[in-house]
Design brief:
This protein has about 240 residues and is of the alpha/beta class.
Length: about 240
């Protein structure tokens, strides 16, 4: 078996991924696909933490635009991430991949509380840890959650799984002439306001020297390729 390039990764999944083509709710086929892709990487002995969004169920900012209090909307979005995380846990366990859900919002009946040392111990024992409930605080996105947890857990890289094959200078779906970046710096993301992560998340990754790979989750084997060090998607690193 090929030796992986990274020992420990954090996989960031958007909520929309869970919705499949409908972009809302949870699509069973897409859930199975996500579990299969994680399993391929897990089989190489890579320690994996996952942060899932909740936009397929509820998004705090969207709720705020419709009159819901922003903090309340964000808490609702955090609960949506717990639903996605439990669904992913079930899908992984059906694939015989051991998994634990840890939540930043205490919910003893369905998930462990997030405890950094326990998360690391789970990963060392070969369990995938799904980190739910965002940061536990409103006004922070799940991108920021991913950056924060990546720093706390000492991961080697963040793998941001999306529906496009990297970072472009403009939306490739609406602009056929969009240019794809093979490699970027965190500062270029911030200066160019590129839609990779929000500015808080990008700054946190830059300050803690955490690289990011942005790739297309819909293409089979991409996460496995990333952990093996093969060229895929767009790599974001600190300026040299």
């Amino acid at each position: 078996m090929v030796k992986p390039k990274f020992k420990r990764i954090l996989l960031k999944l958007s909520g929309e991924i869970f919705g499949g083509e409908r972009k809302y709710g949870i699509d069973p086929q897409m859930l199975q696909h996500v579990a299969d892709e994680i399993k391929k990487a897990h089989q190489h002995g890579v320690q994996i933490a996952v942060v899932a969004g909740g936009g397929n169920i509820f998004r705090g900012l969207a709720g705020a635009s419709r009159g819901i209090d922003r903090a309340t909307g964000d808490y609702m979005g955090m609960l949506a991430t717990i639903i996605n995380s439990l669904a992913l846990q079930d899908a992984l366990e059906q694939e015989n991949v051991p998994c634990r859900v840890q939540s930043a919002i205490e919910m003893k009946a369905v998930a462990e509380p997030f405890i950094r040392r326990r998360s690391i111990r789970h990963m060392e024992k070969g369990r995938v840890v799904v980190l739910a409930g965002g940061t536990g605080n409103p006004y922070f996105t799940t991108d920021t959650t991913a950056a924060l947890r990546a720093a706390e857990l000492g991961v080697d890289i963040i793998v941001k799984a999306t529906k496009v094959d990297g970072v472009y200078d403009k939306d490739p779906l609406g602009h056929p002439d969009a240019k794809k970046y093979v490699k970027l710096s965190h500062m270029e993301i911030l200066k160019g306001r590129l839609k990779v992560m929000d500015s808080t998340a990008a700054s946190l990754c830059m300050d803690n020297n955490i690289p990011i790979i942005v790739l297309n989750l819909l293409k089979k084997g991409n996460i496995e390729k990333a952990v093996l060090g093969k060229r895929v998607g767009t790599l974001v690193v600190n300026e040299e």
